[in-house]
Write a structure and sequence with these properties.
This protein is an alpha+beta fold and 185 residues long. It has 5 helices and 5 strands. It has a domain of 125 residues.
Length: 185
């Protein structure tokens, strides 16, 4: 009789283990499809939010002078640009600047932090689009030549600098310069 109970208990444990294993094996497929559905819903939601963001920006700024939105261009804008760029150079004292164009007013689209679900959704082949914050600012194009680590001048490189409300808010290599660098790779 005791053997019977031991066999029965062992059989019960095995069937529970098999049941748990089967349930565990079946759950990832259900979870994956529900995760994908959640990602698709998030994708649609973010696309609508991005469209609403752009519409709101256009409506909020309609009829307002762009200079008022970007703030006045500071009188010392060239010095501000030089200071912002030289802090990034290996030999700041060697920097030579060319300001060929006057500053222009423009809009800037700055990416917002990625949605926390983006990485997980990407694994499921669902791309969550980036959202952007839009603003007006002054765009300044400048060419800079400076010495590298070996002491030689590298040639003029183009930079885009953005100023808003009296502050440098962005310093980037120009898109043309970026493409040249990418083609070197």
């Amino acid at each position: 009789m005791q053997r019977f109970f031991i066999m029965f208990a062992l059989l019960a444990c095995m069937s529970m283990w098999i049941g748990v294993t089967v349930a565990y094996a079946a759950s990832p497929k259900q979870t994956k499809s529900s995760k994908k559905e959640t990602c698709l819903q998030k994708q649609a939601e973010v696309k609508k939010q991005a469209q609403d963001d752009m519409t709101a920006f256009v409506q909020e700024t309609r009829g307002q002078p762009h200079e008022a939105l970007a703030g006045p261009l500071p009188e010392n804008w060239q010095q501000m640009v030089k200071d912002a760029i030289t802090e990034r150079l290996k030999d700041p004292d060697s920097a030579q600047f060319k300001f060929d164009k006057e500053p222009t007013l423009g809009t800037e689209a700055s990416p917002q932090p990625a949605d926390p679900m983006s990485a997980e959704c990407k694994k499921l082949n669902v791309e969550i689009p980036a959202r952007y914050t839009f603003s007006y600012n002054w765009k300044i194009e400048v060419k800079v030549n400076a010495k590298n680590s070996f002491g030689g001048y590298v040639g003029y490189k183009e930079y885009d600098v953005r100023i808003k409300t009296g502050m440098v808010v962005k310093v980037d290599m120009s898109m043309g310069e970026f493409m040249k660098e990418m083609n070197k790779m």
